[in-house]
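Hi everyone,

Forwarding the result from last night's run.
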Amino acid sequence: MLKKIPVITFLAAGLIHLFLAPEHFEHSPAHGIFFIVAGLLEILWALLYWRRPSSHLYNLGIALAGGLVVLWALTRIVIPPFEESPAPVDLSGMVCKLCELAGAAALVTLALQGQVDGFRSTTAVRIIGRGLLLAIVSGLSFYVIGLAAEPLFPALAGSGHGAEDGETHSMGEMEHSDETQGENQVQTEPVSLPGGYQISGAWARPGASGDNSAAYFTINNPTPIQDHLVGASSSIAREAQVHLSEVDANGVANMHPQEAVEIPAGWQVTFEPGGLHVMLIDLQQDLEPGEVFTLTLEFVNAGSVDIQVEVQAP
């Protein structure tokens, strides 16, 4: 029975990956492609191991399942490739990782029992240590490959990823231009703030519950008094942060949280893809095109301001 556990668990994990791939592809094409490849590899491994177990397939299985578990754990702590914040923990992901852990553990147990060719005279410490090393190296390799691919394929970035257009924007680019808003930006009704300035053109990207999105708008301050945007919040996300997307000299996109964004007197500040944006982290519901939600912006002088944001595909 123990010999069947790796086959069953790898098949289950592979099917879960394939089942979740469309949802992840909608949020981030890169993640959807990765889920498809991972799922197919796990299913292929299970079929090959079922027909003819070998030490080579043992090593591949440990590297694949263990590496995916390490990658999953790593991306809950650090920012994954093609994303702007660590991924949330979800039930489907937990079930998939438990299947992979069970499969890897069963393989190690088989090796400890001497049922894997090439491991009969190997000590338990070496078998376990080798398995852990394979998993860690494989998981880190997956992560590094993703980071290397990110600047090469910016179009595969997810919704809410600040550098999907590969452009660099800075806070010096505060002059408003209709062209920079994108042809599809929703022209919502301007919101007047105390003191005479306005917020207009608010829109956000679609996203699935548990994923991230981003909101964009333009702040117009025709007054002689400057202000600062110091925070944001919304009931549709666990957390909202003001971010600035920048591309470094190597072409790698980086996200920088902003404690305060200056709204100079007599200027317009544009929040747009590739530059300033409000990051909506861990959506509490699906955001579908055409839906409208409330976003609260916190200013030093103007205080809390609620704006209506319409969801629209980029």
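Residues 4-156 form one domain.

Cheers,
N.
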